[in-house]
Amino acid sequence: MIKETFNPNPELAANAAIKNMDEYWALQNKALEDYEGFWKEYADEKIDWLAPYDQVLDESDAPFYKWFINGKLNVSNQCIDRHLADKADKTAILFEGDRGDVEQITYAQLSLRVNRMANLLRNEFGVGKGDRVVLYMPMIPEAAYAMLACARIGAIHSIVFGGFSTEALKDRIEDAEAKLVITADGAYRKGKPYMLKQVVDDALSQGGKSVEAVLVVKRNNEEINWIEGRDHDYNELITSQHAECPFELMDSEDPLFLLYTSGSTGKPKGVQHASAGYILWAQMTMEWVFDLKEDDVYWCTADIGWITGHTYIVYGPLAAGTTTLMFEGVPTYPDAGRAWKMVQDHKINQFYTAPTAIRVLHKMGEHEPEKYDLSSLKVLGTVGEPIDPPAWKWYYETVGNSKCAIVDTWWQTETGGHMISPLPGATPIRPGCATFALPGIIAEVIDPDGTSKKVGETGLLCITRPWPSMIRNIWGDPERYKKAYFGDAVKDGKPVYFSGDGAVVDEDGYITITGRVDDVINVSGHRMGTAEIEAAVKKDDSVAEVAVVGRPHEIKGESIFIYIVLKEGHINKDIKNHINALLAAEIGNIAKADHIIEVPGLPKTRSGKIMRRILRSIAKHEEITQDISTLEDPSIVKEIETKAREA
Q: What share of the chain is helix, strand, coil (3-state, %, to 5)?
């Protein structure tokens, strides 16, 4: 079968960082022939080392790999100080608020503000190297200042998405044993103020005993509750802080941040990333995948509460010395032309968003891009899930005028940065296909025993060599780290990193991601473990059993579908609203389910295992092809199907 392929724009390719597939394969072959030499060359070129490293890679305690042994650096220096000699007056962060207010923050101004915040954290609150600081922040510049200030003094930040609930925030504060929480009174969304501080108050009233203070940024100036002795006004304190703050000398392997992500068990995992390897790959992928040039203006629409915001709003762009746009609002407010007006006004060159956003923008304003001058665009990116061909076509033809490269990036919180992606000047693109692993990344589709899958056969997508930006540990739980990421597949007798995704390789070597093979649902690019959702639902006293699966959704990619068995004698006529209110309180609004149905029982094997494959088929209205004769009660399947049809 002939696959539709789009070749790179020759004008873009002529000046690209990687200009053609010959250059790509030369780099990849170089990595295969001399893996450590490949990474050494880039580490020496890209990082401003404050003390040299002794060894590129230490594999002696696999899978606890270590990179650039004994090297010293500071990520804040990598993102700010080293640019001041030639980029002091260049815009580092271009901020646009929900209401249209715009602020341009130069690298010199960024240096001043980060230094002041670092002094505030260090001198007023006693935050130092290794201390954990939780950020529960909106998309405002102070969030970036806080991240970089923590990096400057060696503190470990853990950002909690501002849409997460009291319970989710409390759990993350407690697991990290945070010393300080930084938040805001609130922010603006769709023209109206929304509140954050109350969620912090509620979380700390239920737990988080390690927290000594709360630092509050005033953004929307709504009335909030102040707790004497614990809460402190950032806007008041920051003005008296000194403008210079010496940065901490950090080891390559010192943790930079924790970021909690859902897994296939109920408790979120504190993904731990190290300093040197993470910032190296963040910068390399910014330069390769987005093909940055000196005067480019780059916009990633993600939130800093997710890994995309960490790597591709703050750390990667600033390490590369580019101008990065932070946006407080949503791209469809006040209308579906907001994003395209911003591209026009700010002359955006790279636009990076989620397929969910693309589908919404397409649905709400198919012809809106035609009303604006989008000629500045060069690279269009997608993140969070594979982009479906219809959305890809509209993105390419209407938004990009059939001239822009589309980089459909595959990566994870745990990988730190892009793993598989087209290169805008080199890769012939196929809609819906992740294409090839980036240079230096050894991605293979294998069986659990390490056997390579044949062309067209779906297998486990594994990264079979360690890479610099990889997860280093799960905070406080090394056994879970080994089991979660290195317990499913081996290669040459050694455990290798299994992504949790299935994939297939075609006859040309193109990799297509087929989706999760574990119990994780990807809603609008946000991964949530089914076990975490089930644990929340089970807190309702009327629920006897629950099973959660994903269902395809034309906008969100996947939606949440919940089967509930009520306890005997319990009746709940408003079960959907009731359970969704519980999920919003326990996890956040992103966990609300589109479908919640009450069923008489769940399909189980005689050993008690719930057969979720059957439930997924029912949710999708697919014919049941699995053998149900081994179920404890095969008749339950028909009853569930009837209930699902009625829902």
A: 35, 25, 40
- This prediction has a pTM of 0.86
Q: Are residues 471 and 557 part of one domain? A: no
State the Cα–Cα distance between residues 140 and 30, nearest whole angstrom. 41
Average pLDDT, integer, range 252-256: 98
Q: Do 249 and 293 fall into the same domain?
A: yes
Q: What is the residue-wise DSSP string for 46-77? A: H---SB--SEEEE-TTTTS-EEEET-EE-HHH
Statement to judge: residues 84 and 124 lie in one domain: yes
Q: Same domain, yes or no, for 448 and 526?
A: no
Cα first-last separation, the chain = 39
Q: Is the pLDDT of residue 220 over 50?
A: yes
Distances in whole angstroms, Cα of residue 376 to Cα of each of 168, 171, 325, 547: 40, 44, 15, 48
Q: Are 456 and 47 in contact (CB under 8 A)?
A: no
Q: Is residue 570 part of a domain?
A: yes
Q: By C-alpha distance, which of 339, 346, 352 is closest to 323?
A: 346
User: The domain that contains 555 carries what CATH number?
Assistant: 3.30.300.30
Count CA within 13 A, CB hemisphere, residue 614.
Answer: 24
pLDDT at 629: 58
d(CA 609, CA 301): 40
Domain membership of residue 597 as a residue range: 522-646
The residue among 536, 352, 532, 510 whose CA lies nearest residue 434 is 510
Question: Per-residue pLDDT tens for 610-629?
Answer: 787 889 889 988 888 765 75
What is the count of structural domains for the chain?
Answer: 3
DSSP bridge pairs for 424:
none
486 and 574 housed in the same domain = no
Asked if 129 contacts 248 with a C-beta cutoff of 8 angstroms, the reply is: yes
User: Rounded to an integer, what distance in angstroms lies between the CA atom of residue 377 and that of residue 355?
Assistant: 18
Residue 428 domain-assigned (yes or no): no
Q: Which of 516, 533, 564 is the last residue of a domain?
A: 516
Same domain, 549 and 452: no
Length in residues, the chain: 647
* Among candidate residues 303, 329, 355, the one where a domain is terminated: 329
3-state secondary structure of 647: coil
